[in-house]
């Protein structure tokens, strides 16, 4: 027997231990970091790489240990047995790396894998010795081999358990310790296994010389060493790169997790089959559910029924890998409806969609704002009725529907008569109340037969559909007239208005939006010309009348500049003496081509267009100029009565304009008498203020057409007026109507009780004059005295009266 221990190379042993530790550390790095963080084929690839590096290192250690002995004879190798040793080393490495890379290592797996790995490590040195072909033969004691194998198996179970415990941190220090332990365990088992072998040199075995196989083994040992060291260095750089990648991935994951958890928008995580996997706090706040209740709900249970199909379609589209954004409505746990915006985002892992994120934002307030803006864009702010835009849209739609069904329709245009007077005299706040009340009555009158809209100002419209006949449109128009003719009670005052209505029928009067609205408007103006408070159906002849009205309006705007207006004067006589005490100035229009145009024709047009203000100021200035001239002539000073329009009277600077005209013309203000109507005094506080300003100037005030207005008599005592003028409609019927005689007598008595003078208009007969004288009327005017005369003629008339 031959003892070899004394010929052992210690440097080779240290080198073997170092290589084993490096190989173990590198293999652990690949198994603990790269393979554990991967899945599928990538995990298997990393484990295979780790096994190759660790197995190569252990195999190299085995043959380094064998070559550490100083053999006294030549050595050759059997390559089949050499490959077997490499397989044994790789098997041991694979068992160890597979075990430590698991997230959980059971006791049974620990014992089985660690034990087998230890057995492989114990068998490895003996297999390496048997790969040698030389003159020396290894001898093994069976009991010693079994004891050695069991000891190595136990040692590897312990080392494997320590390495597995260290894998949870995956830190470089612990991995280094685990690598050194494994490397030391492999080196120790190989070294001890070789040391336990004994050798013999039989005589019949020829001495083996140095052959190519020994050199080849040396080459492979060098290659394996370089391979292990190279992979070790590469692993260091890979570990740094991997850690940087992991840090970035961890940061990205933490950002995503933070975004998910702390987002102000609700975020839901769903599986591909629509099962809720997770939700953030905002989702609980949005829906009102906690996690336990929310996880039991199906996706459709939270969706408003009309949006369930939309949600399902978008979800299916998302799981194909496409993001989707859409609006829908959720049902809160408390039952209220929430308008939301959804963004579906596919969750991709290695290019495969594995789930869906749904980001939900509450847009209820935004939707309500949009609805409010849309409502405001299509409805009148004051009355809440549809405005012109919505009315025209509905009319266009109705025309298309009626044409398809072959049914008729009707468009009604309404204009409130005398609204401008109410608005100017009572104030815009009362005017607004009146418009709202009119809107309510129109809606009640039309009911479900059509759509009521406010086009602007005091203009309203009604659209009647569903096969409306001429008779049905007429019935509704008549009902509207009746409803609006009933006085409105506004802030304790009764306000009386009427409406003029124009009706255009589809398709007789037009088959388009423009034609129907134009013709209904034309019919409405015809109703105004026919006395107001009525309705007219459109007729082709109305176009001529409308054209004339438009032409007259254009001519009216030029008449003042052309000097076509002139004044006539009707004398006012004192009943007791027959003396002319004043005149009333009346305006006339002498058109250059059309001749004399009646005031009843152009005065309402002037009121409507606003031209009455400059025309009225011209009339006042002309009358004052003439009154001043009379004061210095044989005619003598006479009271000059001038009629005011409502637009003039409600002007905030009216009193200032009167004062300026009186001053510029040099007329004595005591000779100026301004006539207003009862209707102009409906806004009592404003009227009193204006009248007081005028009285301060020294002019006198008369209430014209007394008895035909709507103001309360209780306010008459508060007005600073000088006289009442009895309307000619009462005077004219005194002898045929007992009631009219009573009214005239009552007005005279009322005025005298209030210390007011009384002027009767429209006196045409002696009997009328006598009746007025008997009841104490102060003055009168009318054709019984004289018709209105031009300035020269009235001067002649007055001087003739004075000469009597």
TrEMBL record:
<keyword id="KW-1133">Transmembrane helix</keyword>
<feature type="domain" description="GGDEF">
    <location>
        <begin position="407"/>
        <end position="540"/>
    </location>
</feature>
<dbReference type="Pfam" id="PF00563">
    <property type="entry name" value="EAL"/>
</dbReference>
<dbReference type="InterPro" id="IPR005330">
    <property type="entry name" value="MHYT_dom"/>
</dbReference>
<feature type="domain" description="EAL">
    <location>
        <begin position="549"/>
        <end position="802"/>
    </location>
</feature>
<keyword id="KW-0472">Membrane</keyword>
<keyword id="KW-0812">Transmembrane</keyword>
<dbReference type="InterPro" id="IPR043128">
    <property type="entry name" value="Rev_trsase/Diguanyl_cyclase"/>
</dbReference>
<dbReference type="InterPro" id="IPR035965">
    <property type="entry name" value="PAS-like_dom_sf"/>
</dbReference>
<feature type="transmembrane region" description="Helical">
    <location>
        <begin position="79"/>
        <end position="98"/>
    </location>
</feature>
<dbReference type="InterPro" id="IPR000014">
    <property type="entry name" value="PAS"/>
</dbReference>
<feature type="transmembrane region" description="Helical">
    <location>
        <begin position="217"/>
        <end position="238"/>
    </location>
</feature>
<feature type="transmembrane region" description="Helical">
    <location>
        <begin position="12"/>
        <end position="32"/>
    </location>
</feature>
<feature type="transmembrane region" description="Helical">
    <location>
        <begin position="143"/>
        <end position="164"/>
    </location>
</feature>
<dbReference type="Pfam" id="PF00990">
    <property type="entry name" value="GGDEF"/>
</dbReference>
<dbReference type="InterPro" id="IPR000700">
    <property type="entry name" value="PAS-assoc_C"/>
</dbReference>
<feature type="transmembrane region" description="Helical">
    <location>
        <begin position="44"/>
        <end position="67"/>
    </location>
</feature>
<dbReference type="InterPro" id="IPR035919">
    <property type="entry name" value="EAL_sf"/>
</dbReference>
<feature type="domain" description="PAS">
    <location>
        <begin position="252"/>
        <end position="322"/>
    </location>
</feature>
<dbReference type="InterPro" id="IPR052155">
    <property type="entry name" value="Biofilm_reg_signaling"/>
</dbReference>
<dbReference type="Pfam" id="PF08448">
    <property type="entry name" value="PAS_4"/>
</dbReference>
<feature type="transmembrane region" description="Helical">
    <location>
        <begin position="176"/>
        <end position="197"/>
    </location>
</feature>
<dbReference type="InterPro" id="IPR013656">
    <property type="entry name" value="PAS_4"/>
</dbReference>
<dbReference type="InterPro" id="IPR029787">
    <property type="entry name" value="Nucleotide_cyclase"/>
</dbReference>
<feature type="transmembrane region" description="Helical">
    <location>
        <begin position="110"/>
        <end position="131"/>
    </location>
</feature>
<dbReference type="GO" id="GO:0016020">
    <property type="term" value="C:membrane"/>
</dbReference>
<feature type="domain" description="PAC">
    <location>
        <begin position="324"/>
        <end position="375"/>
    </location>
</feature>
<feature type="domain" description="MHYT">
    <location>
        <begin position="8"/>
        <end position="200"/>
    </location>
</feature>
<dbReference type="InterPro" id="IPR000160">
    <property type="entry name" value="GGDEF_dom"/>
</dbReference>
<dbReference type="InterPro" id="IPR001633">
    <property type="entry name" value="EAL_dom"/>
</dbReference>
<protein>
    <submittedName>
        <fullName>EAL domain-containing protein</fullName>
    </submittedName>
</protein>
